[in-house]
Amino acid sequence: MDRKKASDFDQRALDLYDEYAHGRISRRDFAQKLAMFATAGLTAEALIQSLTPNYAWAQQIGKDDERIKTLKYEYASPKGGGKISGLMAYPSKGAGKYPAVLVIHENRGLNPYIEDVARRLAVAGFLALAPDALSPLGGYPGTDDKGREMQSQRKPDEMLEDFIAGAEALKTHELSTGKVGAVGFCYGGGVVNQLAVRIPDTLVAGVPYYGRQPAVDDVPKIKASLLIQYAELDTRINEGWPAYEEALKKAGVDYQAYTYPKVNHGFHNDSTPRFDEAAAKLSWDRTIEFFKKKLA
Q: CA 110, 114, 115 angle in degrees (round to 5)?
């Protein structure tokens, strides 16, 4: 399949995909509404296929890259799913202890894109752990549609406990310096914000990408430094930002915030047309620089 860009689509079609990807409309409704954008030789189903993830595009760091080591890692989550597994990645050469980063997936489990993000962090010198919140249900099933359905079956509070337990596991891991950061995307961005509230003595630095904001009354609990990344066209998430920013300023939280112009929710995810290469690179460069500074 040829790789398409956001500019190849009517923005309304991209907005519909956002609704579908976040479970607010069914696949049937998505297809019916998308039909208005079908043209001669291009059916609604073909449009769906061109909008959905192609994970071959998302691999920047190969699974056998000699610069890193990877393994399946399991940890206990007694308040959540019981036992959670995920991908751990770290540099193959180094001093033996690394600043640690928890990588939090979207609303469909630990897919290949998020695994690649963990490997990217390892190449940059971090101990990365990408848990799979679908572990209690058998793990990421291989497709995002099924993964989204499975994740909707889990209790949100228990999933949050799974990621809290993951951060605590990283803090005490033998390869960790004890300095823990977290980066998350979409659902995972919202989880980063929640971790900053819930475990202020563990989380040192957080990078929420287009994530749902915490309750403003909880913001004074935050001790972590935050690098907050938004997309200009992501009006659904952005409407919560003014109140969040006001609360961050009032509480004296150390934060930086960037809104990347003319890009969509999911712009960092290089498996879909919403990916924007320039914004993804700039935001990721900022993320790595931020973690190196705050977790040093």
A: 85
Give the tens place of pLDDT for each residue, 18-45. Answer: 888 888 888 888 888 877 876 655 677 7
Span 68-294 CATH architecture: 3-Layer(aba) Sandwich (3.40)
3 state DSSP class of 48 = helix
DSSP state of 39: B
Q: Are 11 and 18 in contact (CB under 8 A)?
A: no
Amino acid 148 reads: R
DSSP-assigned beta bridge partners for residue 128: 89, 101
Report the distance separating Cα 111 and Cα 8, nearest Å.
Answer: 25
| Alpha carbon 132 to its chain's center | 12
The pTM assigned to this predicted structure is 0.93
Name the residue ranges covered by the structural domains of the chain.
6-51, 68-294
d(CA 234, CA 260): 10
Asked if residue 57 lies in contact with residue 271, where contact means CB atoms within 8 angstroms, the answer is yes
Provide the mean pLDDT of the chain: 93
